[in-house]
TrEMBL record:
This is Cilia and flagella associated protein 57. Residues 383-657 form the EML-like second beta-propeller domain. WD repeats lie at residues 375-416, 498-539, 624-657. The lineage of its organism: Eukaryota, Metazoa, Chordata, Craniata, Vertebrata. Residues 17-222 form the Cfap43 N-terminal domain.
Length: 1255
């Protein structure tokens, strides 16, 4: 698969010359790591990618013929200038210019010469160099070093009419440099105070206008200051309509003072604005005077004077939280189209604006506003990006406090809003109707309306850096530090809190079925959460890596993670399956296609890498130049057709994904996107009311217009009548004038005819006189001509005779010479051929030597020139300095000697202090090393403790199981005790009742005894009650005995449980040690001797007599259980043996029965065959008697029948023999099984005590 960029939304305004027109409609500007060709009307984009391993573009320049584009880049820490031919489709790289001989890091400014043959490039401070190339031949013609007293960027440009004239400006730099005879010479320097020149532009072949950081505009002519303007800005009111025009004061160069002219009228600001951009056009020039405004200046009729004609303001952004401050952006680049019908600007907030220049002075307004070239763009790092399923939209948020909704199908911005807090993360609901945004103070849930974003729910999650809707949209996850909060989208309740991360969580991803959630943090942990239980299912921790992004395979079986360790990790079931190196690049973001066959990875250099899945063993990937900063977020659309990437440089890029054959991927099902939008009821009501108001207003205006039209018709009719009368009067007057003029015309015609007649007469006379005089002259000349003709004939005859004689002599001489020279020519031709061959060889050798010598001489000459020029300049400067400084140095020499002595003493003291500090540094370094060792040891102890905690947790779980068993036993014992306690309570109540009864009976008996004088009833009742009390006392004693017995049993069970736990822990430790020893033993599986020795050691180590003693000393209950199981198994074995014997006997009886049946059946078959034979003979005899068969056939048939019968009997016998053999084999196998099963000593095998303990 491959990726092709479709559109980029961003701009790198810090690139020098970052705006230039290719033609009237195509604009070139830097965005991301590419140069973009943008069609202003049709809105399409084409890309000129940067070089591989490029660290970003620094400058752009287009040639005057609009054919070539120069781009300055830094590739592998070396500056390079690449020239592209943009007139071709696609753009083709023509030349790459390098400056290995110059000590430069980057070229910050570029410019083409007027004929597009030469290229000038300037490097940045502190060492400013100017290079001059003949770029088509990649030849560096000259280079010069320029001293820069201050820091800041430089600008370079060619004179519009001179290929050799270059202007360079910067902080304290203004120089006009001319190329001549292989060197760059400074023709003029600024006199007076040096200033920080931020920009400049050529107004003509000799004039240059410059803008400074103090708000001045200075015009230089031939390097001398001719005009200087001091700018005073007036405050703009809140409406942005009243702005005082810039006032100018022009001076001649002799009257210039270097001080800033400032006249404080009460409205001037404390600091003057900077002029950051200047651009010239045919009528004058444009400059950015203050934040958010461009001033147009045009040349006046006065001598060399310019006047401000128009102000163009950046519009206010009403989507901004502070609309009044939205237009306060510094303009750093201005560009005019070739026809000067359009002006484009770029600002410090990475925005692009356009303005259509007025065609006439009548249309021109004093104040106007820019419009956006494309859309409002992000001006800071993009921190969040997300897509949805039901709509072709993508949401982005940035540190510029804005949230934007883009349409990746139409490449448009659908919604945009700016807030007062920074937005850290964004997530779109799968329906595309809702949006979740994490701000620095709260987490807000918004509905995406038709023209707005409406916040309808806020959650108290501060500084939420990551959030994500589930694939079904019913839940969403929000990160707060190291905790993940799960909320319901319908009830807005916090359904779950996932805790466990020790570091800040960087990314969260939902599985396709929303049952799992995967997260990663900065401490190298990747956790997989089960949302049904709220617990971790798996974990993978790597402390040395700070994870930045994760992605899931389609079925959530594999996790892909990237981080600071420069690898791509493939994680499954808490382990890293595969690690893919990044080759000295940090991976920052990752996305997986929904088909699961492709991985898309973003790097810290801003590039995009694509890999196939499964990952190939030799790492293979395609890398694409994308952004100028690290990739922060990546996402792929639900249909796998578009890849969306965002970067720290504020750019947002849309890629189209193609398959291997370069075709667009096709989905199995074409899903139509939803076209529904949300709108507030109040908005609908307001719009309905506004429509009603407008309809009423339209009706009123119609009636007013009709009335006004009628009035105008009446007035017009009256005016027409008046005008008709006036015109009729004027027509009459004109008719009279016409008649008068006609009469005058006739008079003048008569006069003209008379004058013509007289002139004709004069002319005829003069012609006659001239003819007579000329005839006489002609006669004289004719006579002379005839005489000369006779002389010429004579001379001609003489010359002809002489020529004839000479020709004959010459012909003879020529014949002799031709013969002689033909012989010589033949000889010379042979010699010439030989010499030509030698000459060709020598010329070829000479040309090669000449080229090498010329190249070497050119290089040496250039190096020598550069060296001697530098030496000359340095010596001249040093001579000038030395002449001026010799006198001063003599005076200062004595004072400097004293200072030197003092300094030497101070240096000795400083050296002593340095030695002391060096000792302190060494001791501190030792302390640092010791502390690092302590940290490493503590990390090791922490890891050991974590392992110990993990083991203890497992033991705790097992103890909890035992606790549950004991609790269950205790509950059962309590249930047994509870009825006894209830009986005791009942008995006690009965005792109380009986005691009460006894008391009552005693009282009654006493009363009756006193009355009757008898004592027998009282004695009887007391005897009865004593018997009852004795019975109750016995029952209570029995119950107390039962209670004590149950308590003893409970204590015994507690002891037994404790003993079993101790045994289990000992067994686990033993098993663990045995496993480790066994694992070490497996390492010698290839060496049989060492393996045998190790196994013997294991036997001697783990099989002791003490083990046998321990088995003997097992509990009696366990031995009884073992004996019982053994007896049960022996009984089962005996019964099974009896069953086998019975079944074998039954099988033998069946076998005998089957054999007997087979014998009887064979006999019956033979009898039937004989009967059939007899019947066939009878039939044949009958047929012979009837004459139906021949005699031969009668003789043949009986023999045939006899042969068939014999064959069939043989087959039957063979089948029976095979069946008998099979049954015999079965009987032997059964006998062998019965013989193997009884043990040799009659004992059962040893019982697995460990297994019985576990059960």
């Amino acid at each position: 698969m491959s990726c092709v960029p479709v559109a980029i939304f961003g701009c790198r305004s810090q690139v020098a010359g970052g705006l230039c027109f290719f033609d009237e409609q195509i604009l070139l500007y830097a965005a991301g790591a590419s140069c973009v060709q943008f069609h202003i009307e049709q809105k399409w984009q084409k890309f000129i990618p940067g070089s591989e391993k490029s660290q970003g573009m620094q400058a752009l320049a287009i040639s005057p013929n609009r054919r070539y584009l120069a781009i300055s880049e830094t590739v592998v820490e070396q500056p390079a200038v690449t020239v592209y031919e943009v007139s071709l489709v696609p753009s083709r790289r023509r030349r790459t210019l390098a400056a290995a001989e110059l000590p430069v890091r980057e070229f910050v400014a570029l410019a083409f010469s007027p004929d597009s043959r030469y290229l000038a490039a300037a490097t940045g401070p502190p060492e400013v160099h100017l290079a001059y190339w003949l770029w088509e031949k990649q030849r560096l013609m000259a280079a010069v070093r320029i001293e820069a007293p201050g820091s800041g960027l430089c600008q370079v440009s060619f004179s519009p009419q001179d290929n050799a004239q270059v202007c360079i400006t910067g902080n304290g730099i203004f120089k006009l440099i001319k190329y001549s005879e292989g060197t760059l010479k400074t023709t003029s320097l600024q006199k007076g105070e040096l200033q920080n020149y931020l920009c400049h532009a050529w107004l003509s072949a000799e004039k240059v206008v410059c803008g400074t950081d103090t708000g001045k505009l200075i015009i230089f002519e031939s390097g001398e200051v001719r005009w200087e303007t001091s700018k005073m800005q007036q405050q703009k009111d809140l409406g942005g309509k009243s702005l005082g025009l810039t006032s100018f004061s022009a001076f001649y160069s002799s009257d210039i003072s270097c001080d800033l002219v400032s006249e404080d009228n009460g409205s001037q600001q404390d600091s003057l604005p900077q002029i950051c951009a200047v651009a010239a056009y045919s009528k004058g020039f444009a400059c950015s005077s203050s934040p958010g405004v461009v001033l147009l200046f045009e040349k006046t009729e006065e001598k060399e004077a310019y006047k401000e004609t128009q102000e163009i303001w950046i519009p206010r952004d009403f989507c901004n939280s502070e609309p009044e401050q939205s237009g306060r952006e510094d303009i750093i680049c201005i560009c005019f189209s070739p026809s000067e019908e359009m002006m484009i600007i770029s600002t410090t907030k990475n925005q692009l604006y356009m303005f259509n220049m007025p065609s006439t002075e009548i249309v021109k307004e004093k104040s106007a506003h820019f419009i956006y070239l494309h859309f409002p763009l992000h001006s800071d790092s993009i921190t969040g990006l997300d897509t949805c399923i039901r709509k072709p939209i993508v949401a982005t948020c940035s540190l510029d406090r804005s949230v934007r909704i883009w349409n990746y199908k139409t490449n448009t911005l659908e919604l945009y809003k700016q807030y007062q807090e920074e937005a850290y993360t964004v997530s779109l609901h799968p329906t595309g109707l809702f949006c979740l945004v994490g701000f620095s103070d709260k987490l807000r849930l918004m509905s995406l309306l038709y023209e707005d974003m409406h916040v309808f729910m806020e959650f108290t999650v501060r500084g939420c850096r990551e959030c994500a809707f589930s694939n079904g949209g019913h839940l969403f996850a929000a990160v707060n530090g190291n905790v993940i909060h799960i909320y319901s989208t319908t009830t807005f309740e916090n359904t779950n809190n996932l805790k466990g991360h020790s570091g800040k969580i960087c990314a969260v991803k939902w599985s396709a079925d929303d049952a799992k959630l995967v997260s990663c943090d900065t401490h190298g942990a990747v956790y997989e959460w089960n949302l049904l239980t709220g617990k971790r299912e798996s974990e993978c921790v790597l402390r040395s890596c700070k994870y930045s992004s994760i992605a899931l395979s389609p079925f959530a079986k594999i996790i892909f993670a990237v981080g600071s360790d420069q690898t791509l990790k493939e994680i499954s079931e808490s382990s890293i399956l595969h690690e893919v190196p990044a080759f000295d690049v940090v991976y920052t973001a990752i996305a997986v296609s929904h088909s699961g066959h492709m991985l898309f990875i973003g790097t810290s250099l801003g590039t995009i890498r694509t890999m196939r899945y499964p990952l190939p063993l030799p790492t293979e990937f395609n890398e694409y130049q994308a952004h100028a900063g690290p990739v922060t977020k990546m996402s792929i659309t639900d249909d796998d057709l578009f890849l969306l990437t965002a970067s720290k440089d504020g750019s947002f890029l849309i890629w189209k994904v193609y398959d291997k054959e370069g075709q667009i991927l096709k989905r199995e099902k074409e899903v139509e996107y939803a076209e529904e939008v949300l709108i507030m009821r109040s908005d609908i009501e307001e719009k309905g009311q506004a429509m009603l108001d407008l309809q009423i207003r339209v009706k009123e205006l119609q009636t007013e217009n009709d009335y006004q039209l009628r009035l105008k018709d009446v007035n017009c009719n009256e005016k027409i009548k008046e005008i008709k009368e006036i015109f009729t009067q004027e027509i009459d007057c004109l008719k009279t004038k016409h008649e008068i003029l006609q009469a005058e015309k006739e008079k003048q015609e008569l006069q003209h005819q008379y004058q013509l007649f007289e002139l004709m007469k004069k002319q005829a006379r003069e012609v006659q006189d001239l003819e007579s005089s000329n005839n006489q002259k002609l006669l004289m000349e004719n006579e002379k001509y005839q005489e000369l003709q006779v002389k010429s004939q004579r001379m001609q005859e003489e010359y002809e005779k002489q020529l004839h004689d000479l020709e004959e002599s010459k012909s003879k001489a020529l014949e002799e010479l031709t013969e002689y020279y033909e012989e010589k020519l033949n000889e010379k031709s042979v010699l010439l051929e030989e010499t030509e061959e030698t000459i060709r060889q020598q010329l070829h050798i000479y040309e090669e030597i000449k080229k090498q010598i010329e190249d070497d001489e050119d290089r040496e000459i250039q190096e020598i020139k550069i060296k001697y020029e530098r030496r000359l300049q340095e010596e001249k400067e040093s001579n000038l300095r030395l002449k001026g400084e010799t006198g001063i140095m003599r005076k200062r020499f004595d004072s400097l000697q004293k200072d030197i002595e003092e300094r030497n003493s101070e240096i000795e003291e400083i050296k002593l202090e340095q030695q002391k500090l060096q000792g302190i540094i060494t001791s501190l370094e030792k302390d640092i090393l010791a502390l690092k060792r302590e940290i490493q040891e503590r990390d090791d102890t922490i890891q050991d403790k974590e392992k110990r905690i993990y083991d203890l947790k497992k033991k705790n779980q097992e103890l909890e199981k035992f606790k549950f068993v004991l609790d269950y036993k205790i509950k059962e014992l309590k249930k047994q005790i509870q009825p006894r306690e209830n009986d005791i309570i009942v008995m006690k109540e009965q005792i109380r009742e009986v005691s009460n009864m006894v008391i009552w009976l005693l009282l009654l008996s006493l009363l009756s005894g006193y009355k009757d004088g008898q004592a027998d009833p009282l004695e009887n009742s007391t005897l009865f009650m004593e018997g009852e009390l004795e019975r109750f006392h016995k029952q209570n004693a029995q119950l107390e005995l039962n209670i004590t017995e149950l308590q003893r049993k409970l204590k015994a069970t507690d002891r037994e449980v404790h003993r079993e736990r101790q045994k289990e822990q000992n067994m686990k430790a033993l098993i663990k040690r045995f496993k480790t020893d066994l694992h070490n033993c497996v390492g010698f599986i290839q060496d049989s001797r060492k393996l045998k020795d190790r196994i013997c050691e294991l036997y001697t180590k783990y099989v002791h007599q003490t083990d046998m003693v321990e088995t003997v000393e097992l509990d009696t209950d366990l031995q009884q259980e073992y004996i019982r199981q053994r007896e049960y198994l022996e009984r089962n074995f005996a019964t099974l043996k009896k069953k086998v014997v019975k079944e074998s006997e039954i099988h033998r009886a069946d076998y005998v029965r089957i054999m007997q049946e087979n014998v009887s059946l064979i006999k019956e078959i033979n009898e039937l065959r004989q009967e059939l034979k007899v019947t066939r003979t009878q039939v044949h005899d009958l047929q012979s008697t009837l004459g139906l068969t021949k005699k031969k056939q009668v003789i043949r048939d009986p023999a045939v029948l006899r042969l068939n019968a014999e064959k069939e009997s043989e087959k039957i016998i063979e089948m029976q023999q095979l069946e008998i053999q099979r049954l015999r084999d079965q009987i032997q196998e059964k006998g062998q099984v019965l013989a193997i099963q009884p043990l040799s000593d009659g004992r059962l095998p040893m019982l697995n005590l460990e297994g019985s303990h576990r059960t």
